């Protein structure tokens, strides 16, 4: 097995053994969706949502939660902790360059985000018959660009935060912002129109996910913003990342 493959295996085990990462990162979004679906009135069609059920309308917001929890909280905290503990510095003296550890972390966390999102989709369909995304290609494009933008921002936090504590503080602000604009705290139809429209462009772009989920091709402008965010944040993170 290659050094990268071994690191991915080790980081995967560490992720799964961490109760917070496993429970909050993988399971919380699905638990939230199932908990809301257990309320009978949220399974009834509503005029506020164009005849949709709240449980159907809210499903993309749980996808936002799934991506945000892992990309904006778990990833930056782990990488900042590795720097603070000297793990990255010590790896620079070994044949296994710390870049491979960063790649392993990205692979594990992106895989966890994908698994969490898939669990939301499958559980919603099986338990409450939440429709699957009706525009699969548009949903795939929106999800890939959204998750890339979120993880680029997470890497940027990891690059600038000198300690795990500071990384946690910065990532909490970003996470709460993404959740607010993503309709997790308040459904988007309850937000002021200007705030809801701004949320279209906040990674991972909940409106693009919602549009594709209901069968409409996502608008181009938010997707371009997600792509630009991913490129700019990723490039800056790579340039300023410190190993110690």
Automatic annotation (TrEMBL):
It is found in: Cell membrane; Membrane. The keyword Transmembrane applies. The keyword Transmembrane helix applies. It is a multi-pass membrane protein. Residues 20-244 form the ABC transmembrane type-2 domain. Keywords: Cell membrane, Membrane, Transmembrane, Transmembrane helix, Transport. It comes from the Bacteria. The chain crosses the membrane at residues 21-42, 62-82, 102-127, 139-160, 167-186, 219-241. Belongs to the ABC-2 integral membrane protein family. PANTHER family: DOXORUBICIN RESISTANCE ABC TRANSPORTER PERMEASE PROTEIN DRRC-RELATED, TRANSPORT PERMEASE PROTEIN. This is Transport permease protein. It comes from Glycomyces rhizosphaerae.
